[in-house]
Amino acid sequence: MRMSECLGEKEEGSVAQRRGVVMKPEDVHIGATVRVQERHRITERRGMVGRIADHYGKDGYTAVDVRFSDGHRRLFWPEDLEEISSPRPWWRLLLGRANAE
Fold first, then answer.
1. Extended beta strands in the chain, E state
2. Model's pTM, two decimal places?
């Protein structure tokens, strides 16, 4: 039983919905930032963040080639990934709204 259930709190969607969008084969696009889901069968890969370098196949058998910051590339099924939004570049915060235009 989860702590939120013990406290009587209701969850607003699944963990994947709160963190990012679970990928579907038709949503795969090169350059997207993705995270390996926490339910991935290989524990060492859970939570890793990378960018989609390429994708292969079609008709429900799409494999996604993800490149990680250390240079390694791995193949995943789209269902093993969740798309996350890229954070706003930190340097834009220094410019301020008036200077950014």
1. 21-22, 33-36, 49-56, 63-68, 73-76, 81-83
2. 0.65
